[in-house]
Amino acid sequence: MSSYFDIVASRMKNMLTRISANDADFEDLCERHAALTSDIRRLNPGEDPDQAQRDEQLRKRRAAIEQEMLAIMQANVRV
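The structure assignment produced for this chain is given below.
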């Protein structure tokens, strides 16, 4: 039997797939979000002050993208 998390994750994946199929901008946001997340994971902000500043900048950009994504998701939620 699937855990609650698996059920919710499946529902979210279906929703994201449906939104992406209807909204090319959303897919672009997802790609940009993934790229920023990858860049953030490569940084070592604890040991390098320059990387710490870069980490903060990237996280702010990613948060802004997440806000756009959430707004699109909320507008496309089926009840």
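Interim note for the steering committee: The radius of gyration is 16 Å. Residues 10 and 54 are 34 Å apart (CA to CA).
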